[in-house]
Each structure stands twice: as C-alpha cells, then as structure tokens.
Design goal:
Blueprint (H helix, E strand, L loop, with lengths): L2 H16 L2 H8 L3 H15 L4 E3 L4 E3 L1 H26 L6 E7 L1 H18 L3 E7 L13 E5 L7 E5 L3 E8 L1 H6 L15 E5 L4 E2 L2 E5 L2 E5 L5 E3 L2 H9 L5 E4 H10 L3 E3 L6 E3 L1 E6 L6 H10 L6
Parallel strand pairs: 3-4, 3-5, 8-12
Antiparallel strand pairs: 1-2, 5-16, 6-16, 7-13, 7-14, 7-15, 8-9, 10-11
Helix pairs in contact: 1-2, 1-3, 1-4, 5-9
C-alpha cells in the first residue's frame, strides 16, 4: 500500500480520538483543509463513510468505530516496538504518560516520582488526572491507575498500595451541632459534601462495609463537587460530612481539625494499581517508571 494510505489511517485515528478537525490538525501539523481532503480520499478508497460531520461536532459512524477499534492497538504496537528498538542501546529515555486520580497523584505517585525523575534525567513523565474510566490505549496513555478490582484482565497490573481505606469525617464544630450518626441510616439526618462521578452520571453513594454487611447510602447535601479536594475544603469549613481516602485527611485527623465517625463501617478496598498493556512492558522507560512507583512492603 502507498505511504499516503497509512498516513490517512493515522489521521483518521487522530480525528476520531480528538473529536475535532481543529485539534487533530494542530496535533498532526497540517491544515484543516488538507486533513478534510485526506479523509474524503480515505472514505472513497474504502467505500465507507467513517465520520459523521455537522456544524458543531464530529463523530464516528459504525464503520468508523470498528476501524478505530482495529487501528488503535496496531499503531500502539508499532510505537512500542519502535520505542524498544530505540532504547536497546540507550539509557531509559522518552515520555511516559500516566492517567490517574488527583489524590493518588499527590499522595502516592509524587513522592516516588521525585526519585524516578532524579535517577533518569532522560525520562519525561506526564501526569493527567480525571475521575473517569479512561481508555488508556485509545487516549495514548502508557500507564493508568485504578483500584485493583477495576483493572481490566488483559492488562498487566502492579500494586501501588496494599489497600485503600475510606473514612467519614467532619469537624468537631459540625458534630457539636449535629450528634454523630450511630448507624448508616442516621446519615439521612446529616449534610454532606458529595461527589459526582462522570462514570455514573449521578452523585456517588457512599459504599460502607462492616464485616459481611454492605450498604450504599446517599447522604443529602447542598454541595456537589467533581473532585475530592473540593469536598475536603468544604468539610474543613464545617459544611457537612465527607467520604474521603484516609491519606487525604490523616494530617487533619492528627491535628484535631477533623474527626471520623462510623469507623466500624469504614470500607477497606483493594489498593490502587498501575496497569498497562502487555505489549508495552518491553519499554525500558516504562519499566523504570513502573519499578520506581510500585509499592514495596517497607514503604
């Protein structure tokens, strides 16, 4: 096949991933008109309509979805093999992109990343945070982070922490005005700063555990945020209870700024894991980053 054909396929993947001719053209370093022309040529050669265009947005057709799903892992394989070839005679080098949660980046990754970037000056690490279940292959991330129970089976998983404990917290002043709950049902009489997850499209219900008992509780509240840091700020100001990872509030608990409640219902989940496609494990830069970030019992 002519080289132009492969260029057009890669351009299609970039457009489909970005959902925009403008962003794709900027990323590829070509004009929008040239990119539009290459897509029309590709569709003519294939005899398929790949993109649905209107004045406001671009989306893939059913055929485009199938082609995108087929091409993304193949281009990723090529990039991984080229990266491995380049690194065989070199120190670990290159850019490693990590998709994670903000509090994991702050409390777990960053203390270890400092040592990685000091040890390997040729490695660049890019960290992006969000609360969605990002497809790291389609979004061209090298590493993702999820709770152990949520890692896809076709990925290689590396433990970041032994477990994740969640706690319900409030200020002493809040509890002076509102008697601490004795059971999960009592939370209906309280106020909370809540989290809206993009993966659920709704306010996240608190998942509480005690032995073999598990309950989901929706705590009323006038504040809803999309990050845990905003929730912590509201809880510190006394606007209600928060359901937060212990790492985020450990300092506040030790200083007395916050107190926990319903400790016997505080859930302990499988800890967060790094994960990445098996084809990427040969990258020396990725190996160096993973080894630097993995949890060790002495940590």
């Amino acid at each position: 096949m002519p080289r132009r054909y492969y260029d057009d396929l890669f351009s299609f993947v970039t457009i489909a991933r970005e959902g925009s001719f403008t962003r794709a053209a900027a990323q590829l370093g070509v004009s929008q008109s040239a990119l539009s022309q290459s897509m029309r040529s590709l569709e003519r050669r294939l005899g398929l309509r790949l993109l649905a265009r209107n004045t406001r947005s671009i989306s893939t057709t059913d055929a485009g979805d199938r082609l995108f799903a087929m091409l993304v892992p193949r281009f990723a394989d090529i990039e991984a093999e080229v990266s491995e070839l380049q690194s065989e005679q070199q120190r670990p080098a290159g850019t490693i992109r990590i998709n994670t949660f903000d509090f994991v980046a702050e409390y777990i990754l960053w203390p270890r990343l400092e040592r990685v970037i000091e040890q390997y000056p040729e490695i660049t690490v890019e960290v992006a945070t969000d609360y969605g279940l990002t497809d790291i292959v389609a979004s061209r991330f090298d590493i993702g982070v999820r709770l152990g129970s949520a890692v896809e089976q076709d990925m290689i998983a590396v433990r970041l922490q032994p477990e994740q404990r969640m706690v319900i917290v409030g200020t002493p002043a809040y509890f002076a005005r509102n008697p601490p709950p004795q059971t999960p049902d009592d939370l209906a009489q309280h106020q909370a700063a809540n989290l809206r997850l993009p993966t659920r499209g709704a306010v996240y219900p608190w998942e509480l555990d005690r032995g073999d008992e598990s309950v989901e509780v929706r705590v009323p509240g006038r504040l809803v945020f999309d990050t845990l840091y905003q929730i912590r700020r509201a809880v510190r100001r006394g606007f209600g209870l928060g359901f937060l990872p212990i790492e985020m509030v450990q300092g506040d608990l030790e200083s007395g700024l916050l107190r926990t409640t319903l400790d016997d219902w505080a859930p302990v989940w499988p800890g967060h894991h790094l994960y990445f496609p098996s084809r990427r494990q040969s990258s020396r830069a990725l190996q160096a980053v993973v080894e630097g970030l993995r949890w060790r019992p002495e940590q």
